[in-house]
Known about the structure:
Layout: E1 2-4, E2 11-16, E3 19-29, E4 32-38, H1 47-56, H2 60-63, E5 90-94, H3 98-109, E6 113-117, E7 126-133, E8 136-145, E9 153-158, H4 165-171, E10 176-184, H5 191-198, E11 203-209, E12 212-217, E13 220-225, E14 229-233, H6 244-252, E15 256-258, H7 263-283, H8 289-292, H9 294-313, H10 317-333, H11 340-346, H12 357-366, H13 372-385
Parallel strand pairs: 5-6, 5-9, 6-8, 7-13, 9-10, 10-11, 14-15
Antiparallel strand pairs: 1-4, 2-3, 3-4, 7-8, 11-14, 12-13
Pfam family, one: ApbA_C
Keywords: NADP, Oxidoreductase, Pantothenate biosynthesis
InterPro entries: 6-PGluconate_DH-like_C_sf, 6PGD_dom2, ApbA, Ketopantoate_reductase, KPA_reductase, KPR_N, NAD(P)-bd_dom_sf
Amino acid sequence: xxxxxxxxxxxxxxxxxxxxxxxxxxxxxxxxxxxxxxxxxxxxxxxxxxxxxxxxxxxxxxxxxxxxxxxxxxxxxxxxxxxxxxxxxxxxxxxxxxxxxxxxxxxxxxxxxxxxxxxxxxxxxxxxxxxxxxxxxxxxxxxxxxxxxxxxxxxxxxxxxxxxxxxxxxxxxxxxxxxxxxxxxxxxxxxxxxxxxxxxxxxxxxxxxxxxxxxxxxxxxxxxxxxxxxxxxxxxxxxxxxxxxxxxxxxxxxxxxxxxxxxxxxxxxxxxxxxxxxxxxxxxxxxxxxxxxxxxxxxxxxxxxxxxxxxxxxxxxxxxxxxxxxxxxxxxxxxxxxxxxxxxxxxxxxxxxxxxxxxxxxxxxxxxxxxxxxxxxxxxxxxxxx
Length: 386
């Protein structure tokens, strides 16, 4: 079968109703092309309608193409993008802050290819990153690129602020390979569902880490403490085996754990953050003061009880039962730390409250659970941030 396209020698991908299907377009003659297609499952549809619908801008119902962005279908792979097909994972990192820089250093040390995606990045420009570990300083040189770079992305690590996750991924969506692996390692919850809904055909993973790092200056990070990093699939599937890239990942990232069900880990961190972040931010105190100060400790307990009720309703009874012990342990272990929310407020930056307490409140509303203390903290942080 032959159809006409706008250009010869094109390569496009279309996200159709049955999943992501690849079509290799080869030049025939007189601006005609033959579609040689590889599909993951047999789906009947009209090729001409799908492709002409994309060009004419018809609605998904008219063309059969699934649109998730206002400017066109996600899955039309930019023919100008050069795909990288190497045996080893090449990691692109969105969010070269403290955690992003720490993981970039570890992956590079293990021999992985690493590129930093910067808002103002210039393709091919080299950026020097330094990571302090005690008295030792590790200095690495990374290639940088902007969102509009020229190479495809096979492995993407996202470590931006929670409120930037979706827009950051959207800025590079035209570069994502059809089998791209995306690891979301940002703080908070809620954006995971948004990414899954927007990119249903890609491999989305979620993670949480207790690694500690502080950004001293642009390109200069201090490793504040070793921790555990847990990774799992954002959506549960029958085959929960570790993906191939994780075998390389766990060699590079110390104390990495593959989690067949990542939700408990995400909820545990969310619950702890819902206690520590807003209280320390409003009281402008170090984490340890939540345990050392009697007045602050008296605020922790009832707040924690509300959070435990939501965890229990969501199916995480074990987290609810362990929350008093876990919260006390984290407050003690991080007693000298200033929470990220306190740092954001002090710096006049937007906070992640919508993806921490805000997410908890959304789930509480779904279960008709009253959470007045958490809601009061949420509103206080929102008013302080503005």
